[in-house]
């Protein structure tokens, strides 16, 4: 898949994320998607991605800004850097209690693209920065760099 088509695929995926359109996101991933999330276990398969999206939609409302997207020449790999703006809606197991706290954290995702679909998504962010923010601490890392 040429780089231009892959760029369109990832742009569409990120736009669907911002719209909260998990059905659209799911339509863009391979059946055997490999999904690695920060501080979490690897999930393999579209069904596990669906479960993850259900969980995330219940606990968080997020949107991405300042997106910078990189795609390699043959369109098989991509990387996106962005800022996550979120609201913590419902307490997520093992994390601080939720009461509508807002947060802003820099993050990045890496993508593998195969046969016109996203075959792998790996996402990273600073979990301690997020915890400090939802606990009411200063936003030292995300705001001062």
Task: Walk me through this protein's architecture.
This protein has helices at 3-19, 22-27, 46-59, 127-134, 140-144; strands at 29-36, 43-44, 60-71, 77-88, 102-114, 117-125. The protein is an alpha+beta fold and 145 residues long. The protein has one domain: Nuclear Transport Factor 2, Chain: A, CATH 3.10.450. The chain has a 6-stranded mixed beta sheet. Strand 1 and strand 2 (43-44) form a beta hairpin. It is globular. The relative contact order is 0.18. The model is unreliable at 139-145 (pLDDT under 50).
| Distance between the first and last residues' Cα | 36 Å
Our estimate of the beta-strand percent is 35-45%
Write down how many β-strands occur, each being a DSSP E stretch of 2 or more residues.
6
Any idea how many domains? 1
Shape: globular
Low-confidence stretches: 139-145
- Spell out the helices and strands N to C: HHEEHEEEEHH
Tell me the quaternary state: single chain
Please supply descriptive tags for the structure shown above.
145 residues; alpha+beta; Nuclear Transport Factor 2, Chain: A; 5 helices; 39% strand; globular; Nuclear transport factor 2 family protein; NTF2-like_dom_sf; CHP02096; SnoaL-like
């Amino acid at each position: 898949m040429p780089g231009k088509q892959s760029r369109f695929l990832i742009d569409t995926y990120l736009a669907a994320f911002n719209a909260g359109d998990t059905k659209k996101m799911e339509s863009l991933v391979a059946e055997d998607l490999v999904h690695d999330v920060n501080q979490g276990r690897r999930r393999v398969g579209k069904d596990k991605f669906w479960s993850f999206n259900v969980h995330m939609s219940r606990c968080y409302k997020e949107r991405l800004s300042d997106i910078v997207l990189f795609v390699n020449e043959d369109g098989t790999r991509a990387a996106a850097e962005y800022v996550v703006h979120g609201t913590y809606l419902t307490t997520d197991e093992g994390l601080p209690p939720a009461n509508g706290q807002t947060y802003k954290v820099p993050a990045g995702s890496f993508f593998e693209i195969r046969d016109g679909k996203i075959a792998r998504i790996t996402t990273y962010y600073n979990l301690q920065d997020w915890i400090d923010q939802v606990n009411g601490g200063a936003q030292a890392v995300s705001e001062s760099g």
